[in-house]
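Thread: Newbie trying to understand structure tokens

Hi all, I'm a second-year student working on a class project, and my supervisor (Dr. K.) asked me to get a predicted structure for one chain before our next meeting. I've only ever worked with sequences, so writing a 3D structure as a token string is new to me. If someone could post the tokens and maybe explain what I'm looking at, I'd be very grateful. Here's the chain:
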Amino acid sequence: MAADLSQLVKAYDVRGVVPDQWDETLAELFGVAFVRVTAATAIVVGHDMRPSSPGLSRAFARGAAAQGVDVTEIGLCSTDQLYYASGALNLPGAMFTASHNPAQYNGIKMCRAGAAPVGQDTGLAEIRELAEGWIDSGAPAPAATQGTVSRRDTLEDYAAHLRGLVDLTSIRPLKVVVDAGNGMGGHTVPTVFAGLPLTLVPMYFELDGTFPNHEANPLDPANIVDLQKRVREESADLGIAFDGDADRCFVVDENGDPVSPSAITALVAARELARNGGSGVIIHNLITSWSVPEVVEEHGGTPVRTRVGHSFIKAEMAKSGAIFGGEHSAHYYFKDFWNADTGMLAALHVLAALGGQEGTLSALVAEYDRYTGSGEINSTVADQTGRLAAIRAAYESREDVTLDELDGLTVSASDWWFNVRPSNTEPLLRLNAEARDATTMAKIRDEVLAIIRA
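---
Reply by user tm_fold:
Sure, no problem. This is what the structure looks like when written as tokens:
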């Protein structure tokens, strides 16, 4: 195993191909490094349904226990269930998952006690440095007294906690199709939805980390085709798709049409503001629709714009005391869930909102979906910096626009905006554009793409 872990340790997590890039030996070293950096005396560990996850998780626990740290293993779980355990037990945690990546990948999402994020600037760089040093020299000597490793099932408690945050007592009966993508939603949904007046139509609930039906990434339109078809066939009220580790949810309406994550962000923001007396801070990243800050202000809240990425969102939520945050990627963050992201709680909010009135989901979300967006368009480029400079040069002299560089380059006019930002891990530029009408959006989108791909 090479001593350079730069391709394995990303900005927010560990992720790579097993066993080519990492294996159980390295997982054990990560366990040692994690407890050293967090100064933990006890931790909680969980894993998804990937074939390599149980072994990697056990190895991590072994490394931690060897240093005298007590380990609570919660076994199969969604990422937000691990965050729940970290918050409820007030312990640092590690979740073994590669989310929506193909089967040969695996990874670790780590957090401090109370589900506080561990990213490059909050401990992950130090974890990488320690693990790299031990690849050749071997792990530090075990503690004189080994830590214990015990098992605990948190699924029922996790489900009860979520249901306690949304009033679902008076919703009308709904028919909902759920596509778990053979991921952890198949494990959590039956327990979380238990007792609700729902007719549940399950799709791909069998836990299978080889993803035999489709990639567990609902943001790719190809992966929700089956869900859209089933919603129409069943005459269902809505459809919900979860990603592999079930921390993101994607919604389609009664016609099978996708509901923008920005519209879900705005809808949930309005509900959380109402629940908090009509005031509060709502976080949104700079790629969410103009609809989000508009709805927040209309409902008495204060919108705060941030960079893309969960570590930035969670840090800003902690700093500002925000009650809710949302991203264009269908990550939803809640103050009452330790500022962590949980797609399941967002899904419960959608069910409560839809079930609390008689109209359709498409009618309900129309007031939260006011503009035309391009979605995220990726372009492979050889020179990210050069292409960004070319875009800046094309727009910076125009009097009708403003430019900012909070995250990549954002150019805004009175009736449109676009953002272009580089990928941290691939030679890509990511374009998102939005306008007040489809014609203007297409014009701006194509104008910028021509520069990016020149």
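A couple of things are worth pointing out once you decode it. The two ends are 40 Å apart (CA to CA). The mean pLDDT is 96. Feel free to ask follow-ups in this thread.
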